[in-house]
Amino acid sequence: MSKRQRHLNAEARYERERRRNLLASPGPSELILVLDHLKPGFNVAKIFRSAQAFGVREVHLVGIGPFDPAPAKGALRAVPARFLDELDESLSRLAAAGYCPFRLVAGTAPALQTTLLPHRCAFILGHEEFGLSPAAEGLPALTIAQYPGVQSLNVSIAASIAMYEYCRQHAALP
To answer: 54 by DSSP, 3-state: which?
Structure first.
């Protein structure tokens, strides 16, 4: 099978899963993830898989094009996705619903592990190379504490750690 044919097959799977996503029910927690212009490779699908495991209410996909849903292992059918063009749209929805958004950043910011997270919380994760959209500036920032010498974590790993910490604080795990 040619590279072009694999790409077309992945796009067809994406469109099929996106239609099925309309039937997804919100997760049991109040947590929302916002994926701000992430590369549409494996990380987006892997984040959906973790979002299902941690009971995330919904995932906002901001400026993210088609991606292969196979690594999500069906989670795209289970976790509601909101497909948005700009981060401002996501932030407006969050504000209207009473959510407190947090930017997850590498470097100097209060540690996620030592911050009391509100029930209505949203984590915003940015592009692996370019970071967050300018609309995120000024929002509270959190970092995942790690040993010195590490530049950053993979975005899907950082998302999973943040979801776990939210669930740990709110006893949201069974």
So the answer is: coil
